[in-house]
Specification:
globular; two-stranded antiparallel ribbon; three-stranded mixed β-sheet; mainly beta
């Protein structure tokens, strides 16, 4: 995971964080949370208290 994180970091959009679990991402209209092993998300997703972050802050996959 550390190696993957280092490879992704230079490609992350400005203001986004590349990190690993334990964060859980929640999405509107979904009753459960998802915890990816590795994620790229807007830093603002982690401003709330606790382990739940806004799933809409995740960076989309490049096309």
């Amino acid at each position: 995971m550390k190696s993957l994180r280092r490879q992704l970091e230079p490609h992350a959009p400005e203001g986004h964080d590349v990190d690993v679990a334990p964060f859980l991402f929640v999405f509107p209209g979904t009753e459960r949370a998802f915890g990816p092993d590795l994620h790229v998300a807007d830093e603002s997703a982690f401003e709330a208290e606790g382990r739940h972050a806004d799933g809409e802050a995740l960076s989309p996959s490049p096309s």
